[in-house]
Amino acid sequence: MSTIAQQIGPLKISSPIMVASGPLSDSPDLIRRAEDCGAGCVSTKLTMLTQPVQGYRRMYAVRGMYSFNPSDRRNCLEQGTELVYNTKKATTLPVFANIAGPGDDLEGWCRLARSMEEAGADALELNFVCPNMAFSREACGEGQLAGAQIGQHPEIISRIAAAVKAHVGIPVWVKATANNVNHLNTARALAKTDIDGIVVMGTQIAVPPIDIYQGGRTCMPNLGNNALGGLVGPVNRLYANRLIANTAMNTALRIAGGGGITEWAHVVEAIMFGASITPMCTKLLWDGFEVIRKMNQGLLRFMEEQGYETIDAMRGLALRHLVAPDRLEAYDVPPHFDRERCVGCGACLRIASCTALSFDKEQNVQVDVDKCVFCGLCGSLCPRRAISFPREKTTQKGAV
Residues 6 or more apart from 100 whose CB is under 8 A from it? Predict the structure, then answer.
């Protein structure tokens, strides 16, 4: 019998879906709603020793593509510990306390970590991701680094992580920036410490959406100017899976990884690339916590149908098929058309790089196999899923 529950160190995780640190995890009431809908764990809203700069929650989204957030409030130490304490009274969810210390001040990081442990946190998530404070000198003081800026320095991250781990008795996970030019250096450095896991992906630093009819002013509501900020959502999903896969192939760290997850199949993808936990935010912001329940149901149904008894049974399966580009096995298999599905919409004929497809007199799509380069693009673009490419290996060209 299949189960989506896991035991990760001392933590009992009822579902791989974690509510990521952010707007959905800054009140016990919201977190309780997430638990009621089946979340497996939660990472609380970012806490710092003091409120570094004025934050304004402003968000902009294009459904199905992305959400953009140039600013938000952070919790000071008192707010953060109160959030953790009250959440532990209101729920039974494993709580990861998301914290960011003052630059590379080890004493400050350890003070934050110890305070969260005393408030009842089940684990810590050290934040080296936040892009919004990375551009503020005031965040940690003149000459100090903050957020995603620290994330560019593996030696600083690993030193902080090791100090925090030695200072507390609860699991320590590190949220490493997705904007690191070589994130593997960070993952490998962290693997040499005694931390319990790594959280990959997080937020991409991006430019804001603009109104081209207003001279490039902001599209965002209730703002008079623009700022760089965090880009999240489906647009990041395949990039996130790359980070998960690279980390899994090069370290033995437990991974919490996700980005742009909008359906249960995306949870499976992240797990098959090496994740144990899949943080979510954007889809839940758009469509509510009920999404979690539906994803859990879909995930469990898939596991039972495919014969996977545990999450670990699926974890990392895709890595065996991931190779360097020069080792690809390429097949010359022409497209197969399901005539019952095809409605003659012509979407495949509009592919600019393709000269192999055409309509016959009956408006059926035909393939000139001698012109086909077997790229497969037509199959993925067909709105009716009427085009497929059989998996049999062949180099034999023949009529379709």
Answer: 46, 47, 48, 74, 112, 126, 127, 128, 130, 133, 146, 147
